[in-house]
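Reopening this one. Same input as before:
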Amino acid sequence: MFLLRHMRPKSASQYEVVLKPLVAWLGPDRDLELVTEADLLKYQSNLRKKLKPVTVANYTSVIKALFNWCMDGEYILKSPARRLERKRPPPDPEDNRAMPPDELRKIVDYAKLTHPRNHAALMVMIATGVRVGGLLSMTRERTDLDRQFAWVEDKGGGYYKAYFGPLTAEALEGWYRKQKRKEDAVWTGKGPTYAPIKSGAVYAFFQDLCQRAGVEGHYHPHCVRHSRGHGLGKAGVPISVISRIMNHSDEAITAIYQPHDDEYVALIARRHELIALADEPEKAFRPPNISTWRAS
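Same output, byte for byte:
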């Protein structure tokens, strides 16, 4: 019943992967009311021996969600998972999965010359940092080219505003003019059906673009999201604003996009050594020039 609640099929499948081992470990005939905090703490301890800390944190979140749901539905009086810790490990400042700007420019330039749909999709991903699922949720009705934003679906099933600029709006207009079937879905495939594309098609055209444009290294669409985040961080955008643009649930997740290396910190400190004396420090702040800043 928990997996049949208002949950997307992909989310339900992911939850099932987490919960099946738990049910097997507790015993399939175990009454929920008899599950104790000690049981779950022991199970979590076993997980820590086999899985990475971030995976244990994700598993713990699902387990807590299950028992909270049971409590809300009055199947149990209190949750035995309430004291389970789900702290994520601190972000690794060296963990940069972004696609380098020069490589990203290669596929953008190639797509612009060869495929208006793929070019428009790339521009949306670059401008908004949207996930593939959010990209595919775009419709003409929920996309406003004049005001330059689209309502896109997040991985939790809700919607948020993804903002873009005039160059992305221009790319979308170009794709709209070429699009054969004028239906509400923004991203459609080839004829004769011109059906909406799925995530596999996005990964496929991205890999094809990388190969044809001569990109070195292995990248996938989510790397573009990291490129957006790291670019905003190096541009000096406040972490609270980056978090909203990336639609993160917690600013702690966004912290990975803040530059941490000594060279960057030293540059900022020296450039603004007297900023405490400025009447309007927000106007005095100047981040490094991204076009000349080395890629981390």
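So the earlier flakiness isn't reproducible anymore. For the record, Confidence is low (pLDDT under 50) at residues 290-296.
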